[in-house]
Amino acid sequence: MMQHLKTGMLSILLGAVAMPAFAADPESCKVVRMAEPGWNDLAFTTGISLTLLKALGYEPQSSLLGIDVIYLSLKNKDLDVFLGYWDPAMVSYYKPYKDDGSVEDVVTNLKGAKYTFAVPVYVWEAGVKDFADLQKFPDQFEKKLYGIEPGSNQLMIDATKDPALGLAGWEVVESSEQGMLAEVQRHARDKAFIVFQGWAPHPMNTALDIRYLTGGDKFYGPDFGAATVSTQVRKGYLQECPNVAKLLSNLTFDIDFENKGMGYLMTDGLSPEDAAMKALVGEPQRLDAWLDGVSSFDGKPGRDVVKAKLFP
Question: Which DSSP string do the residues of 139-193 spell out, in sequence order?
Answer without folding.
Answer: HHHTTEEE--STTS-HHHHHHHT-GGGT-TT-EEE---HHHHHHHHHHHHHTT--
